[in-house]
Amino acid sequence: MGEPSPSLKVCPVCGGGQFTKDPVLWPELIQQWELSPEEVAYINLQQGFCCAGCGNNLRTMTLAAAVTRAFGFAGSFKDFCRKDPTIRQLTVIEINPAKNLSAFLQVLPKHALHSFPELDMQRMSFADSSIDIIIHSDTLEHVPDSKAALKESLRVLKPGGHLFYTVPIIIGRLTRTRRGLPPSYHGKPGANRDDCVVQTEYGADFWCEIFEAGFGEVSLTSLIFPASVAIHAVKT
Questions:
Q1: Is 80 exceeded by the pLDDT of residue 116?
Q2: 142 secondary structure, DSSP code
Q3: Is the pTM of this model over 0.85?
Q4: Which end of the chain is more exposed for a tag (fewer CB within 10 A), N or C?
Q5: Distance from CA of residue 39 to its chain's centroid?
Q6: Where are the domains of the chain?
Q7: Residue 3, by phi and psi: left (phi above 0), alpha (psi -120 to 50) or beta?
Q8: What is the rounded average pLDDT of the residues 85-96?
């Protein structure tokens, strides 16, 4: 497959045109994840290709693009959060900071940031049908029961509500649990915090649990495939 080309010219978050690229994976995680050289290349691109202006990486740039496209907004995510009258009226729940998207989401009048695992994504405290948008990035793979978390999102979203998120996906294999395997941690080498332990390694069938959880509509956004995939699920 070879290394995907970082062909992005304009940051969909801030509109900048300068980017940096640094590797982020380390040998222990590569071994635990059993990654091929091609998989290492596109995950490094996903996590390490960043806008020099706003600091968002390809993963969260793709998430931002998924949001603006879902609402038919042609400009940057920055302008969307500041100027779009629709999003500014909606209740937006962000679970864990979606890298540097948080700085832009925080200008929304009805935005609230919650932290996992303090917020139990499997048993959220929000009322039924009370939230318009839920957004998180590379968090679901750390939840012990990811399908239960998706069902909870479905419960608390209003009819027509939106769930936007990313998870690391290895497209050449199927999803597998790490239950019974030695602990594996995302984040940084040596940062073995409980909230960074990996519960699920997502593969090409990642979309199945979304429908199994009850969502009726799912769409995908990619800026550079296979390095970036953002998921948009709608409560129909």
A1: yes
A2: G
A3: yes
A4: C
A5: 18
A6: 19-234
A7: beta
A8: 97
